[in-house]
């Protein structure tokens, strides 16, 4: 999710060939609900949240910064998705 507009996210999804939905949270309500909003910086911390089809948060990771060294890799996220899929 991000505070970016839907059209901006669609462009990113098309560019990155992402096959899952992204959430646009222009007013920050969802980010605040998940506890990832940083009011001092007036933006959300880089976070990865995986929610299953039943609406249960199965994975949440908030990073200390947006620097490349602090970001989770695609491989790490895919491993988390595989773990979740094996739970079923």
Q: Can you walk me through this structure?
A:
The chain has 88 residues and is of the alpha+beta class. Helices cover 33% and strands 17% of the residues. The protein has helices at residues 6-16, 29-33, 74-86, and strands at 37-38, 43-44, 47-51, 57-62. The strands form 2 sheets. Strands 1-2 form a two-stranded antiparallel ribbon. The chain has a two-stranded antiparallel sheet with strand order 3-4. Strand 3 (47-51) and strand 4 (57-62) form a beta hairpin. The radius of gyration is 14 Å and the shape is globular. It starts with 5 loop residues before the first helix and ends with a helix. 3% of the residues are buried. The mean pLDDT is 85.
Quick rundown:
The protein has 88 residues and is α+β, with helices and mostly antiparallel strands. The protein is 33% helix and 17% strand.
Please specify the SSE layout and strand pairing.
Layout: H1 6-16, H2 29-33, E1 37-38, E2 43-44, E3 47-51, E4 57-62, H3 74-86
Antiparallel strand pairs: 1-2, 3-4
């Amino acid at each position: 999710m991000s505070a970016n507009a839907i059209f901006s996210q669609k462009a990113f999804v098309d560019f990155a060939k992402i096959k899952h939905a992204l959430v646009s949270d222009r007013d920050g309500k969802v980010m605040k609900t998940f506890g990832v909003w940083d009011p001092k910086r007036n933006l959300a911390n880089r976070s990865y949240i995986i929610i299953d089809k039943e609406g249960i948060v199965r994975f949440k990771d908030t990073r200390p910064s947006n620097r490349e060294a602090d970001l989770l890799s695609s491989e790490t996220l895919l491993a988390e998705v595989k773990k979740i899929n094996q739970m079923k």
